[in-house]
Specification:
By secondary structure, the protein is of the alpha/beta class. Helix content is 38%, strand content 20%. The chain has 15 helices and 21 strands. It has helices at residues 40-55, 63-79, 81-92, 96-118, 152-165, 180-190, 206-214, 227-236, 262-274, 291-304, 326-342, 377-380, 396-404, 419-428, 461-466; strands at residues 2-3, 6-8, 11-13, 20-24, 31-36, 123-125, 131-139, 142-146, 169-173, 199-201, 220-224, 243-247, 253-256, 286-290, 345-348, 367-372, 387-393, 411-415, 433-436, 455-456, 469-477. The strands form five sheets. The protein has a seven-stranded mixed beta sheet with strand order 15-16-17-14-13-18-19, sandwiched between helices. A six-stranded mixed beta sheet has the order 10-9-8-11-12-20, with helices on both faces. The chain is globular. The protein starts with a strand and ends in an 11-residue tail after the last strand. It binds nicotinamide-adenine-dinucleotide (NAD). Nicotinamide-adenine-dinucleotide is lined by residues 146-151, 155, 173, 175-176, 205-206, 209-210, 213, 224-226, 229, 232-233, 247-250, 281, 382, 384, 410, 450, 454-455.
């Protein structure tokens, strides 16, 4: 049985009150690990260690040292990629293929930020000859990093790599449902010769996250998760006006025009919605199809859905695993029922699959609800499960209006062969990412984040590093002379 501990001030340790939490496999509800469950008191120790390390010799590290550190971590992730992918699938239920892809993306993220850090040099500004004026990027300080359960190590990597690369110290708190890969990553960090306190792991629940958000010794909180927690973090951050980055939920329209390549659009509509059983912040669960092809499109999806292989993420033939928790399972089924009550037509799914292997674990059939209208709750709220809701639209203007009529703004996709329409739509959609004739690709070079209630700030790309820095104007007068302005 895996047992995890906290990592504080360079030491592995148990929580002060010895708390533990059973970590459960979403595939069969068996206990797969006992994780350390920290409290606020442990978080305070970790914050103090990170504060001390930031105010100590860590400040003297060069960009070369830090780029080397990120490259070394990428190497260690590659070395342990199989083990990490196994843990991620065990803990989240996602297929091993998806977890392996995550590990490749995680190593790429560390390498990308290593390159970016190494290229940082600040700027010398135009100024009088006796003045040296420079614009410098400096670390923010102690960073509290709070991550969700759907992409545990990937979301952590998007934060850890730029935070350490910019010269900050870190306290990370993964979701207490899925701490296993972040714990293993911390073992990789512990192999290196970092000063104590530079990197700290505190596994626990909301109270640990709240301590990070409230602490006056934390200078920045970067959070990925739901709107409810995001709101409380934003409020808590006012205590010392700490920097905040929020990556929140989404309600992401996948808009198919009649002139699209329909073979590709049908195929990607399934990828958009059922990747990781729909538990993706950018999942394309809100399908919008032009009236003239709507019935045929729904028919083609209906043919494909029963053929999706649901099963244990470790089995090679599995295409979709379970959802992550009993709570999610119940919530998703509740939303499907609410959609049917509002008038949506259940085309497929909406229940636990039949068969003995699905009796234990959090299994759901891939679900299609057709004839959804923009006013329905299921067209507005994030479902975060394997559910497509399909709406019909009659014109480009109607599609645009309905797609933008949501508090969220994370991602959207448009399918059309008309380049002019593609361009118009991608400009007019109010979302942080707009894909045309594709769904889901992201990479470290491009920014990730949301408009409106999908968050504040961006991860990845240069901006994803800049968010972990303060900008300083350094002005040095080499030949000061009295001005004689006052009372001379
Ligand atoms: P969650 O908000 O319940 O939890 C996220 C993290 O915050 C966990 O570590 C949790 O323990 C912690 N937390 C909970 N309450 C807190 C509080 N009051 N103060 C501080 N920390 C607190 O989210 P979740 O259920 O783990 O993740 C699912 C959500 O995450 C979905 O809404 C999804 O869309 C979103 N998400 C967004 C992105 C993105 O890039 N925008 C990526 C992944 C997930």
């Amino acid at each position: 049985m895996i047992q995890t501990q906290l990592y504080i001030d360079g030491q592995w340790q148990s929580p002060i009150d010895r708390g533990t939490r059973a970590i459960v496999s979403p595939a069969d509800e068996s206990v797969i690990a006992q994780a350390a469950e920290a409290t606020r008191a442990d978080a305070r120790l970790a914050i103090a260690a990170a504060r001390k390390a930031f105010d100590g010799p860590w400040r003297q590290t060069t960009i070369r040292d830090r780029a080397k550190l990120l490259n070394k971590l990428a190497e260690l992730i590659d070395r342990d990629a199989d083990k990490l992918a196994h843990l991620e699938s065990l803990n989240t239920g996602k297929t091993l293929t998806e977890s392996r892809t995550d590990m490749g993306d995680i190593a790429a993220t560390f390498r990308y930020f290593a390159g970016l850090v190494a290229s940082e040099s600040g700027a010398v500004n135009e100024a009088p000859h006796h003045v040296i004026s420079r614009t410098l990027r400096e670390p923010v300080g102690v960073c509290g990093l709070i991550t969700p359960w759907n992409y545990p190590l990937l979301q952590a990597a998007w934060k850890i790599a730029p935070a350490l690369g910019a010269g900050n110290t870190v306290v990370i708190k993964p979701s207490n449902l899925t701490p296993l890969t972040t714990h293993h990553f911390t073992q990789l960090v512990a192999e290196l010769d970092l000063p104590p306190g530079v990197f700290n792991l505190v596994t626990g629940g909301a109270e640990v996250g709240a301590e990070l958000a409230e602490s006056l010794d934390v200078d920045l909180v970067s959070f990925t998760g739901g709107a409810f927690a995001g709101e409380s973090i934003m409020k808590a951050a006012t205590g010392n006006f700490k920097r905040i980055g929020l990556e929140l939920g989404g309600k992401n329209p996948n808009i198919v025009f009649a002139d699209a390549d329909l073979d590709a659009a049908v195929d990607y509509a399934l990828n958009a919605a059922f990747f990781h059983a729909g538990q993706v912040c950018s999942a394309g669960s809100r399908l919008m199809v032009e009236d003239s092809i709507y019935d045929a499109f729904i028919g083609r999806l209906a043919e494909r859905l029963p053929r999706i292989v649901i099963g244990n993420g470790f089995h090679g033939e599995t295409q979709m695993g379970p959802v992550q928790s009993a709570q999610q399972h119940e919530k998703i089924l509740g939303m499907v029922q609410a959609g049917i009550a509002e008038g949506a037509r259940l085309v497929h799914g909406g229940k636990r699959p039949a068969g003995d292997v699905y009796k234990k674990g959090y299994w759901l059939e891939p679900t299609l609800l057709a004839d959804v209208t923009a006013e329905m709750k299921i067209a507005k709220e994030e479902i975060f499960g394997p559910v497509i809701t399909a709406e019909r639209f009659r014109s480009e203007a109607e599609a645009l209006r309905a797609a933008n009529d949501t508090p969220y703004g994370l991602a959207a996709a448009v399918w059309t062969r008309d380049l002019d329409k593609a361009n118009r739509m991608s400009r007019a959609l109010r979302f942080g990412t707009v894909w045309v004739n594709d769904y889901h690709p992201y990479f470290p070079e491009a920014p990730w984040g949301g408009y409106k209630a999908s968050g504040i700030g961006r991860e990845l790309a240069r901006i994803g590093l800049d968010e972990y820095t303060e900008l300083k104007h350094s002005y040095i007068n080499l030949a000061p002379k009295a001005m004689g302005w006052f009372g001379a």
